[in-house]
Amino acid sequence: MATKRIKDPAAASRGSTVSVQPLLRSARAQLKAGAHHEARETIQAVFAIEPGNPLARTLRKEILDAALRHLVAEGFAEWSGGKPKGSKHPLKPKAGPTVSDYIVEERDRLR
Hints:
Strand order of the largest sheet: 1-2
Strand content: 5-15%
Largest sheet: 2 strands, antiparallel
Radius of gyration: 22 Å
Number of strands: 2
């Protein structure tokens, strides 16, 4: 896979370039070391340089999954294995048309 190089705006006058490959390797190493926050920050830097990088997208998902597993393991979060349920104290809608009514109405006008 070819390394895509993009000019760093801050260093444009020097003519230097920034490669995302070292950043991706660094993020993967940080993830393996359990440094989820640092890995996330590194991935954000990759997206600032190259927003559509597919490897960064995959790695971002891995980082999120690892961070969530860590929170569950530490007891800060729970997951019962099912889909999220509604609120125990849901808000009651006010009288009048709902947002979905407006959306349906707008779609009908566009047809």
